[in-house]
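SAMPLE LOG
Freezer: B-3
Tube label: C17
Construct: single chain, 354 aa
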Amino acid sequence: MRNSEKIACACLYILFLLDFSASAQFKEIGPPPFSQAIAHQKMKQLLSSVNSANRKQTVGTLSGWVAWYRDILDEELIAAWRQESRANLPELIEALSDERVALGVVGFSWQQSRVTAVNLAYAPMLTSLMSRYPKSSEPFLQDLLGQTPALSQSEAEGVCRILLDMPDLGTWRESALQILPHYSEVAKGLLTQDLHAGDEDKMYRAEMWMTELKMNAPAATPTQQTRRRDLAPYSPPDAVTEAPRRLHVDGPPVPIETAPRPARSALPIIPVPPAKQAYDGPTSGVYESTGSPIPQSAEFVFRNVPLVAMRLDYDSKIWEARLVPADGKTQRLIVKNKSTSPQKRCIIRWSVAQ
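STRUCTURE (predicted):
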């Protein structure tokens, strides 16, 4: 075979591979399965009949229609939330929301239906939406930071629960420290419950909030004292087994020189062996994940973390975090999404433990 023929064959083969690769990566979604009018009817019916037994199946069905009917789904989710029969919707809304849904649901809850929609039952969903879509929180924070509204007991409980549970993103914590004193009795009641909830992380967070809000915490029970001792420093194991599911890696650190913040997680301080104590880098900063959203139960790995004892501040309702030794004078920070939905980003503040 002549050289020209060989070159022609090679080019054809390459074009075949490119075409095959493209067809493998991109799949045409095809025409919509039904009209927009029928889509409205089907979604309305599903949302009106959702319950704990069929919620997972309903999420799967609606997710399968998103490629054709995202706008219709947004409209129907917001419309369903405006009904009094919204009790079975929070988990479904968390799983299917986007910014438009967050704006509609949070805006209606706070500005038009505060009495029935801002309470302890719906606080976790509202917290999730406002943390994932910060723009949706603007009316909520503006009102509370302005002329502080008078709230009923249930409304105050919902507001305080949101403020206490929100991850420390942007100026949330600073805002919470300004707002919570206006509802100090309600906030103290919730924090006292957290201290006795039997959850180490809740207990630790409650103690930190009470310290910052200058509240007198109840005397610790023997069980709580034992848990506090459990938070003491420990030595890392000699060998670390890699987690079986590693979907995201290499989130770059974003060092920021700031005053250390109190840790809000239950993650213990990991001490550094004596031979590696010399450290003259930043004393605090922020790690933020990059790339695509982190799926439920997936992990994200921050590499080249300084090998120094650290305190970590993160939203432990969404993330699990651990530090493991790495090659050289570094360690890795591994976070796992333990929530029920994908998370667009993970933000962890760190400071060198004194």
